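Researcher: I'd like a structural prediction for the single chain below. Treat it as a standalone chain; there are no partners to consider.
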Amino acid sequence: MTITIEKDVRVPMRDGVTLATDLYLPEGGPVPVLLVRLPYGKDVVTKLGQPVLITPLAFAEAGYAVVWQDCRGTWSSDGTFGLQVADMADGVDTLQWIRRQPWCDGNVGTYGPSYLGLTQWALASQGPDGLKAIAPTTAPIDFRYVRFGRGGGLFWHTNLLWAVSMNQMLVMRALRRGESDATALLQAAELAADPEPHLRKLPISDQPLLNKQSIWWQKSMEHPISDAHWAEVSPSERIADITTPGLHVGGWFDIFVTETTRAFTRLRDEAAGPEARQYQRLIIGPWDHRNQEGLYSDRQFGARANALTADVTGAHVRFFDHHLRGDATADAADAPVRIFVMGIDQWRDEQDWPLPDTRYVDYFLDGSGHANTAGGDGTLTLDAPDGEAADTIRYDPTDPVPTIGGRRLPAGNIAAAAFTAGPLDQSPVETREDVLCFTTPVLDEPLEVTGEVSLVLHVSSSARDTDFTGKLVDVFPDGRALYLTDGLLRARYRTSLTEPELLEPDRVYEMVVDLGPTANVFLPGHRLRLEVSSSNFPHYDRNTNTGGNIPHDVDEPIVAVNTILHGPRHPSRLILPIIERP
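Model: Treating it as a single chain, here is the predicted structure.
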């Protein structure tokens, strides 16, 4: 097939700004069109070749015209970059421009991961004519949830490293345009080369170079999760206006997997019209934000786990053939939900998420009050404890529990991701006195946990605000304690993300920590373990425990004495989604 490529076509927006756009046009038009809008440079990203980032030629060869566009204020496009601020209007204007072109048959879809998914949500939330399907990968609906977890903690490592990377790219753009100088580029490069001192700095908003070179960074630090600012640019506030079927692709170790499953379920329930609600699709593999190979330093999931062998590209083509070409048979054999079940390391088709036959089971925290470290006496039991007990940790913000793997933005390339994200061994943190470990006996039978995991804690603290973390791990017979899923609750947000309320010191509260989704079969000889603490740094920012505005808190951090109570009057428990099938 002959494919014509047109580079840097200028597409006008309603305010006169033009956006640089590349066109990949197959012969024989007019044809359906797939749109990708991104801030990372269309000429750079199309050459990366990540399995989950399907290149334009793959779709053009399948008979689709493909449009890749630099977002406003990035790379070859004009204007000023701002986090998702202009993506709603610019997306609609670009869609309307596409539909006026002679090579477009009027049907448009979108695809792409991360920020490329955010731009899809921004467009879909406007309910524009002609948008027939979206396929966001590893992307939350709102930028609010790029910055914050559902428990109110800031994804500090992800946000700082992403800001540093974006800053470097924007300074390079300004230099090419004669709007900056080599000194600014050198400063940006030095920051990118060694971000560690900036990760540890307090207050975290004190980042002079970012504040100087990136106005959007400074503005984002001014708005906590409870700020009304986020609602103004929030596609999730407009779910009922979304009229498009969606293909949602995520990874069990992706930072945003909770948002991937949440988007799927919300659109199945709330999207505009029966077609949009019926044709939501979900695919989740054993992947993180960059690595879709299923290979990690402490765990390898086999050849079938790779996004290429799992044919994620084919799933996209079939999905678009249905909704853009009108071929309802194209994806008729594809189940609504396709998940990789770890432990047994198999793909499995399902009809919905959460799985309809889920049984939620309480695993109670128990012990005599010495659950500190994996060598302590903390247990997880199906039987409610007979007696009351309490476990205490001393949380010092200057000595937080270090992040090991899990759902963090991997450092470096895909190969490096295998050592910095995903199912890594948590044993090193389980030797710390500020980590409580509650463990089941060795399993005699396989136990499947597939779905959304939550943790109910009865707690008190000496501080007016602090954090509580939970982490589910799979303890192998050889002693490895491999990460599965985790979460954090900032105590001020225990009842509401929009109306924070500080603690009364030493008063007992019941709090629910969302640990996110997973799918894992714990095999015979393995054990389940829950880790409870008050920090996971630098994945999350550190709570300074003062009750102040954490990003800008200039007061000296204080040590919090945090207590987890368990027993008949304080039934702290891990709630697991259990699947029992013949």
